[in-house]
Amino acid sequence: MEVLNASDAKREFGELILKAQNAPIGINKNGKPVAVVVSAREYEQLRALQQQALKAEIESGLEDIKLGKVSSGSEVINRLRQKF
C-alpha cells in the first residue's frame, strides 16, 4: 500500500483520489498512520462484509437463545472473575 504524509496528501489530493480508485492509500501524520483512503466501491464492499458478519453473529445469538444456551449477567461476571 502506498503511504503519503498528511501534507503531501493535502497538496496532491486530486492525485490521491485517482490513485485510491485502484488501491488503498495510507496517510501518516507525524510518522504515524492516521487514515486510509479507499474507493467508494471498495468502501461499499467493506460495509457489506461488516453487515454480513454482524447478521451472522446476531443469527448465531438468536439460535443460542432458542437452544437455551444463555447465561445470566452474574454468571458471566463470575466466570470472568475466575479467569483473572
Automatic annotation (TrEMBL):
It holds the Pfam family PhdYeFM_antitox. Signal peptide: none annotated. Transmembrane segments: none annotated. InterPro entries: Antitoxin_Phd/YefM (IPR006442), YefM-like_sf (IPR036165). Gene3D superfamilies: YefM-like domain (3.40.1620.10). NCBIfam families: phd_fam. Antitoxin component of a type II toxin-antitoxin (TA) system. Belongs to the phD/YefM antitoxin family. This is Antitoxin. The lineage of its organism: Bacteria, Pseudomonadati, Pseudomonadota, Gammaproteobacteria, Oceanospirillales.
